[in-house]
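Give me the fold.
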Amino acid sequence: MTVSLPNENPEYRAARNTLLSAEADLRAKVEEVASLRRGLPKGGEVPQDYPFRTLEGADAPLSSLFGPHDALAIYSLMYGPDADQPCPMCSAFLDGMNGQIAHISRKISFGVVAQNTPEKLSDLKASMGWSQLPLYSALGTEYQRDYLAEAEDGSQLPILNVFQRNSDGIHHFWSSELFFEPSDWHPRHIDTAWPLWNVLDFTPQGRGDFIPPLR
């Protein structure tokens, strides 16, 4: 199909077609990477059924977060017990996820954990308007340290982990380890799940050095 837009000149169309070819190559590469991800062998067995707590303080072990599904994604929010506010970048990501949970939950289960008290997480959920996000307290557990969300000095790190459940138990499947790979600006470890950056990349200015504020 030949595409053209009003008043464009041949120079623009030639450059756009070159870009279009590159975009098609990128799409194919994304599919290739997704296929490689799906083909990962079984990861390490989860060492314990981490005793998370709900915002009401009830027990919510990791195994219970799967619900009816056999895949569970957990995002670790940077909001430690001594923090006055959560990480603005994490919060911007979760703003978007809040609107997608109803759709995501038809296929997999999703949870957000933070190394903070149920009370402070409950206040945060209300103030941020995260009405659909299931938040859990990981305070007092080894989960954050075990799954790359807490540094040796206790500082909190953002990461997305995916677990799978089968007859052999619960095993780790994948994590956004790009966070630990060198990058020219931001680790960009969850770019493909974050509309903010992808939309900005469509524009003449690009993403630049924009940092979303904590609203």
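The two ends are 44 Å apart (CA to CA).
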